[in-house]
Structure formats: structure tokens, C-alpha cells
UniProtKB/TrEMBL annotation:
PANTHER family membership: FERREDOXIN/ADRENODOXIN, TRANSFER PROTEIN, PUTATIVE-RELATED
Upper classification of the organism: Bacteria, Pseudomonadati, Bacteroidota, Flavobacteriia, Flavobacteriales
Organism: Tenacibaculum pelagium
UniProt GO MF annotations: 2 iron, 2 sulfur cluster binding; electron transfer activity; metal ion binding
PROSITE patterns hit by this protein: 2FE2S_FER_2 (PS51085)
Protein name: 2Fe-2S iron-sulfur cluster binding domain-containing protein
Entry keyword set: 2Fe-2S, Iron, Iron-sulfur, Metal-binding
Length: 110
């Protein structure tokens, strides 16, 4: 059954967008940001979602339980700029029904 979830994304200009994200298309947060054009073309998902560039780094503002960070994501964030305790790579956050109400802020461009 198709289920969209509501996600609040604050873009790099500080504008918050409340959007509907599909959970039945195997999309991740980075792809959702790109599909809604919430970041300029070529500034997010540069590596294509392989956890190799940190261009989709975001700060998780809500207290959702996210999947554990993998080694690739952990290593990439260790080298990224503007990393905070709540930093995650958007390409590693799959859109699932459990993430309804997720709130994130896109990290500044490095």
C-alpha cells in the first residue's frame, strides 16, 4: 500500500519546506531533496548517493530513531565540514513510514 510521509526540510537559505515523501519508491532523503529542488542543481548528491562526498549532509532535528550509521557514512562524516552530533548523510536515510514527521536541516555547502 502506498504511503506518503510528511518531512520538514530546512534548506540552506533557512527556509523550511513541509513536503510529502513517498515510501514506496525506495527513495532516500537526498533524492527527495533533489526531486523537490530544495538545493541548487549540482550542490547535493554529487557522488550519486554512494556516501562518498557529504554534499547531502543534514542535521536531524527531530528525535526519530534512524538506522545505525554504516562504516562508509561514518568515515565520510569524519572528513566532512560543519559536522555536528546530529549530522547524517541524506543519501543513507531511506524514506520509510516510521520517519513520518522527520525534521532535518541541510548542512552548509562545503
Amino acid at each position: 500500500m502506498e504511503q506518503d510521509i510528511t518531512v520538514k526540510i530546512t534548506d540552506r537559505d533557512g527556509v523550511t519546506h513541509e513536503i510529502q515523501a513517498p515510501t514506496d519508491m525506495a527513495m532516500n532523503l537526498m533524492e527527495v531533496v533533489r526531486s523537490y529542488e530544495l538545493a541548487p542543481e549540482g550542490t547535493i548528491g554529487i557522488c550519486g548517493g554512494m556516501a562518498m562526498c557529504a554534499s547531502c549532509q543534514c542535521y536531524v532535528k527531530s528525535d526519530h530513531e534512524l538506522p545505525e550509521m554504516g562504516d562508509d557514512e561514518d568515515a565520510m562524516l569524519a572528513e566532512a565540514f560543519y559536522v555536528e552530533d546530529n549530522s547524517r548523510l541524506g543519501c543513507q536515510i531511506q524514506m520509510t513510514p516510521e520517519l513520518d514527521g522527520l525534521e532535518v536541516e541541510l548542512a552548509p555547502e562545503s
